[in-house]
Amino acid sequence: MHAVDMPFSYVIGGFGPWAAALMMLAAVQSEYLHRGALSRCALGFALLGAGLVANGWSDPAARWPILTLALAAVVGTAVIYRALRQLVGARPTRMPRLALEVALPCLALLPAWTAGPRSFALTFHVLCLAVSLGIAWTVRRALVAPRNTAEAAVAVILLLYAGTWVYALYAMLRHDGPEHRHLLYVEPPFLAGYAVLYALLPLLVGVLVFNLANARLHHRLRRHANTDDLTGLMTRRALLEQAGPWQDDVLERGRQPVVLLLDVDHFKPINDTHGHERGDEVLRAVSDRLAGTLRAGTPLARWGGEEFLVLMDVASLDQAAAAAERMRAAVAERPFASGESRLKVTTSIGVSAWPAGVDLAQAVANADAALYSAKREGRDQARMAGPA
Ligand SMILES: Nc1nc2c(ncn2[C@@H]2O[C@H](COP(=O)(O)OP(=O)(O)OP(=O)(O)O)[C@@H](O)[C@H]2O)c(=O)[nH]1
């Protein structure tokens, strides 16, 4: 066999696996990491691996190393594919089934191989084109209307990828001469390079994909743990995590940290009279109104059932009292619509300074004591705690 049309072989040998690798990465990035996209990428890898093996077979010196490396690459791809499916929560594919899925199209190459290099190359190109069209189908949304850069990148890569195979077919059909019979053939030194590429690439991509998928899962879990489902405010946990560094920063800027604890008055009767769902609506509306009185970035958490906690930096405690009054008024001034009826909702608020060297738990306990006296003295009011 001769090496012919080197740049072309180079494109097929070099671009194909990278395109498949990028596809896998983009699939993770763009949230359409699903069975269809993944299995077609895995198939793309396997097919290219099979093409490489067939190529290497013609060179006795390269035969066994290439065979071993390419098989390792195929197995590596299958393992990564399976792990990824588990990561995204899909039922794990059974290995024999996956092996069959990937092996069948590769086996289709066998009869073509025995029929001669030209029919082999032709079959190979048709299969690869089918795979690239298959991938295009699974990610068609990215092609038609990409929503972000990752999706736009997928569209470009796919077009190049499919274009490579279309061109390969065109070139094969147009040139019947012997020099175009072995479009897959690559010189042994390059072949060895590709073989290493095949063996390393799935590993490399696997590590990248795992990291990306892990980072995304981690981010999602953190967001779930730190966001209150009902109100969208931060949870107690999230506020506790931020509180220490927040206090350091406020003190450094020469301002005073204060804690405001708010509790919706007579909330139980709202639930009992209007139902739990209406109660939920009221909690959401209260949290919106509270947030509306605060500067963006002020830590506001849902502290418990109908309790909210605010960390605020002020120049003086008078400012904190004024802010508490604003929050109280924002809730009390207009009734909340609940179906046909209007619900008047009020809050009681306890405010406490949170000076340096005092635990947040202590400051919250002081605010809670102030809140308790606000409740005792008739509710719908804010009370300042004694010195912390
Ligand atoms: N709808 C709804 N109700 C909740 C939620 N979390 C806690 N609650 C209810 O909030 C009510 C709190 O009632 P209490 O602690 O007795 O206080 P209250 O009726 O507000 O009276 P005071 O605080 O003394 O003014 C309880 O009935 C809880 O079931 C929630 O997420 N949604």
TrEMBL record:
User: Which species expresses this protein natively?
Assistant: Luteimonas colneyensis
Q: Which domain of life is it from?
A: Bacteria
Swiss-Prot/TrEMBL catalytic activity: 2 GTP = 3',3'-c-di-GMP + 2 diphosphate
Segments passing through the bilayer = 6-25, 37-58, 64-84, 96-114, 120-139, 151-170, 190-213
Gene3D superfamilies documented for this protein: 3.30.70.270
Supply the SUPFAM superfamilies for this chain: Nucleotide cyclase (SSF55073)
Its lineage opens with: Bacteria, Pseudomonadati, Pseudomonadota, Gammaproteobacteria, Lysobacterales
Q: Which PANTHER family does this UniProt record tie to the protein?
A: DIGUANYLATE CYCLASE DGCM-RELATED, REGULATORY COMPONENTS OF SENSORY TRANSDUCTION SYSTEM
**E.C. number, please?**
2.7.7.65
How is this protein named in the record?
Answer: diguanylate cyclase
The record's section on InterPro entries has: Diguanylate_Cyclase, GGDEF_dom, Nucleotide_cyclase, Rev_trsase/Diguanyl_cyclase
Q: Which CDD domains match?
A: GGDEF
List the keywords (alphabetical).
Answer: Membrane, Transmembrane, Transmembrane helix
- Pinpoint the GGDEF domain residues: 255-387
